[in-house]
Amino acid sequence: MDIKALKDRLFESAKKEGFESCEIYYQSGSSFTVSIYKGNIEKYQSSENGGFCFRGLYKGNMGYYFSEASDIDADKAVKSAKENAEVITIKDKEFIYEGDKGYPKVNVYNAALEDMTAEQKIQIALNIEKYAKEYDSRITVNKSMVASGDSYVYICNTEGLEVSEKGNHILAYAEVMAKDGEDTREKGEIWIGTDIDKLNTREIAERACKKALSALGAKSIKGGALRVAIENETFADIMNCFVNSFIAEDVQKGFSLLKDKRGTQIASDIVTITDDPLMEGGYATTAFDSEGVASRKKTVVEKGILKTYLYNLKSANVDGVKSTGNGFKGSFRTAVSTLPTNFFIEKGDKTREDAISGIEYGVYINDVMGLHSGANSISGDFSLAAEGLLIENGKLTRPVDQITIAGNFYEVLKNIDTVCTDLKFNSSAIGSPTVVISSIEVSGE
Amino acid sequence: MINEKTVHDVLAAAVSTGAEFAELFAENNSKNNISITNGIVERANSGTDRGCGIRIINKERVIYVYTNNMTYDNLIKIAKEGAAAIKGEAQHSITVFNRLEGISAHPVVIMPNTVEKKRIVDFLMRGHSTAMAYDSLITQTGLSYLDSVQDVLIANTEGLWAEDKRVRTRISVSAVASNENEKQTGYFGPGALQGFEFCENTNIEAIANEAARCAVTMLKADNCPSGKMPVVMDNGFGGVIFHEACGHGLEAAAISKKASVFTDKIGEKIASEKVTAIDDGTIPNKWGSINIDDEGTPGRKNVLIEKGVLKTYMTDRYNGSIIGMAPTGNSRRESYKIIPVSRMTNTYIAAGTDKKEDIIADTEYGLYAKYMGGGSVNPASGDFNFAVSEAYIIRNGKICEPVRGATLIGKGSVVLKNIDRVSDNLALAEGMCGASSGSIPVCVGQPMLRVQNITVGGRG
Fold first, then answer.
1. Which of A27, A209, B236, B355 has the fewest CB atoms nearer than 10 Å to its CB?
2. Which residues between 270 and 309 in chain B have a beta carbon less than 8 angstroms from any beta carbon of chain A?
3. Model's pTM, two decimal places?
4. Which helix (H) or strand (E) holds B454?
5. Coil, strand or helix at B39
6. Which residues are registered as beta bridge partners of B390?
């Protein structure tokens, strides 16, 4: 796609149609995926893809239009954006940003990754399957997969902004099934990064196997209010459902219970939450957001006190503060909203073993299901099917399933009494160490 | 979209190294969406997705390449790249395409691109005003509209040439009720395989009132008790239980890997005699209906379970061939970016003969789940979980106080056998189903039914 020629056509047409200012956001990328099943390539996929979003201010309202086709009639695209602008009734001021003076340097592109051949990637997937199969006779490997991709973002507007960023990553995944008689357990392990040297195929395979095997023979327990340790990645998944409440747009619209809570205690004083787009090796690391605002690290919650919401230019203007650089789009298709970057609970001082040894009777939760339905992002209420291990006298004694854990996220934040050292990120760039909750409602038999 | 010569040459390049089969799928998908929050039009967006994918199958190997650079040279280039993953000699070539005709079973009256945006906004605003007026506890509303017109071309090396136009329209209405400490949401999202006439025929006031009523009821409700108990699930979206707990396990993609509890069970009794379950892609203008699936197979009505006995799986070409079954018209995909696999269309438990009133009157103690939320399932174990968005306690055969925060968990294979009452009030409801080939429109459905003993998770 000759994006600069398209930009010129769109900007010229926008001027004629009466847009005050406008912008093009272009995104392209290519990807490669291979998955292995029983030693054979089951799926082999490659793609190249790109698209753009045109947006502009017309009588103060922002109108949008997106397309994957570059040979589009620029006049038609601009007219369509104008029609969209005309029905907008929101009064908050929208911005086409002139850009910041300087942008941080981030390391999101690894040339060595670009040089990897398809054969090398296939070998990684084969190795993962081999290691998983060798690990235990009760294991069958449902899928081992390697995916790599590169992406390019370019933003240019009539106010002087012109930025671009190129990135790449590789992902490896193992999905295994442990079978013992009629009892089957399916678990997966995923690794994402840009540094190919850190990809350890044996570790990915073994982690998936351990997860599945440790669940064999699981049964329910008698319910009640119990002390519960929630494993790092699982707590990150739960936190992911409630991250919206930290977003200023949601707060301003009344969709967040954190409204009017800035400067107050919203979590236990051992909880510090950071949003860090500059983090080395983070899945959401970037030098600027989708509005062209330079990235910076923010402490969102400091020792339990809410310090800031996450802002884009529009919501920051409403509250009279500076954008935190969180004005992101889901893809070029969507309008700018607000998203966290690498968003995580800072690690604490106890090892996981120490934390468990301090629990007389409770559950160690290492998987939850039903997050998209059993968690209410507004009220904070959740009720989730869960699996894990029983803790008796400070020791993990047997696997547990067919239980639910139910509670309220805001209460849980206040009831965290231990934060471990094992910070881990999930694939949505949300991170957490293993945490212990003093009491949570568990229902079982 | 792409001319016949290009398609021919691309397919020839795709099988030039000996693959058994190649298929081209091209689409142009124009979309509009508008969203209104608290009566303010916040977003309006439109645009077009356009691209093409080439799938090459050789024995159990699948190669997929896609692009949105649809020039002749680029399509030939990516077809050759895909073909390079197979080493062999060309086996065959296509000489002539057979055009699939007369497949338009779902008429569209008002094409979305002929509708003025203002008219859509006015329609949605009626829902906002109604919900706000329902009760002073209603503090927020969210309404949205979306349409899509997807034109597809599917051609393959067996000579298939199929073109289809899929026009879909959907709205969503949510109402939030709040007091000092908390918020509860009521939500409905109806849609159809139709144009703007869907909105004209939809009573948005009734939907907004029901969403508001649901939110207010749940705000005033106490926490749901936990434990094992009988659960009466009402019709419509209650069918999500079958969709999640059983439907996914009947998809050939799970069966071909023996990753479903229903593997090798055709002809066996897997459910209570009260249960007949159907997947029907042919219901006129239904949200989950299709003219043809994404491999060009016409939509069909398939009886999956008849009086408790498993009759068939839902198949796609690839997974169907592994298990020795012909395509059933269930191969679906979100877009050209994802390989199609066996998926559901409109899937429901058929009407029974019990009466709604009798089922409640016959239940001494249990949970009445009026509206279900979403859920998910692990196909290997059949373990499922569902949120209940509006629930009541049944005591002495009567529906009593509302309760909130209920989750149902269990195993699909067990629940199917424990269905002991099925009423005659079948209804379907719309949803988006997410799985390996992306997010696709489906309907779930059932009449009111009762399941003996499900684990209910709650905080009370």
1. B355
2. none
3. 0.87
4. strand B449-457
5. coil
6. B371
